[in-house]
Amino acid sequence: MEARVARIGADGDGIAELPDGTPLYLAGTLPGEIVLAQPGAKRGEGRAATVAAVIAASPERAAPPCPHFHSCGGCTLQHWQDAPYRAWKTGLLEAALRRAGFAPVLAPLVITPPGARRRMDMSIRRQGASVVVGLHAGRTAEVIDLTACPVLHPDLFALVAPLRAALRGLALLRRSGSVVANLLENGSDLLLRSDAEPNTTDRSRLTAFAQAHGVCRISWARGEGPTETLCLLRPPVAMLSGVAVRPPPGAFLQASEVGEAAIVAAVLAGLPDKLPARARVVELYAGCGTLSFALASRLRVAAYEGDADLVAALRAATNAQGLAGRIAVEQRDLARRPVMAAELSTAAAVVLDPPYGGAAGQIAQVAAARPQRVVYVSCNPAALARDAAVLHNAGYSVATALPIDQFLWSARLESVVVFIAEERPGLRPGPAKGPRPLEPTP
Prior knowledge:
CATH superfamily of the largest domain: Vaccinia Virus protein VP39
CATH class of the largest domain: Alpha Beta
Structural class: alpha/beta
Largest sheet: 8 strands, mixed
């Protein structure tokens, strides 16, 4: 059937409609294009479709810079010219905040350039005598063996071919696994997950691989089990706002230096202009300190994080830097045991950087506390829309909203939104009383 693409959906696919109004999802298409499509399996409220031919192409269509674009599922929008692509990315944040009840004015989009991504998470498959290392094809289990990637930092992608060669002779890989690599200050840090145990030869070969390719540490885990260090040539170091942190294997770090710098600057700019001498901020989902150390330069920080390894890294860096009087760290599962409104009510601001699913278990307590400022760092516009609606209902307005394209050519968007509590009759924003003292980090 012929179909006319009306718009690009939240997942980066073109969307047309069947005669009965059912959405038809068309990967690799653009608004206004007429395509020959074969409707397929049900997908959500609509149907996926295969594009057999583009009958009338959009004038906004561009040549994708990656040879894997039409097969690899990592990027979805390389075929779109820069200006409309940027407008669409900005529109994701605007639409999310409008769904929450706000009428925001957005700051200009911050773009991460090609070749800047410093984290890769790839699948591994053994296929006979060869090994495939790459990303999944769109919505399938097939792994595309990558020979190029314009998104990744060149130093990081340079590991793919030699890693593929090294894995062919390792006993730890029977059928499948994965690799997470972070590009740090002193080299790459790799976490291998596989379906078999490493033997002595594996350990020797991986140590030689690390020595040859500037890898500071290689860790291993069987499936989703606990990690083990296979080789450590030097302690891995990530610099976060000038503080040296030793992240755990596979640690979540911001995907690019450009993105991290934009996030940190926007968070600091979102704090109140005038802060009392002993003012404190409550930081939720602190990770290993991406925002903690920057915040500590302005005020005292009560940092909460659920992952034990990230907490240990944050505490160690805090103590090593002599910041135990400025940053208090507590391990806490914020989904099961959120920080309550009474604990938040004395904060000058609440800063939160939740995972992809958002802060559903925590945001109601933030809204009930009504701190003067809430600075929300989001990597998922849909989750942001849900959580922002809670703040809207509690009487918050949007002061600033910054979209950050940290995931180039994908449908994902990072953003920093600053919410300000408006005064209501009989109800004023916190803090209601002076900040409580912070206990030193143990």
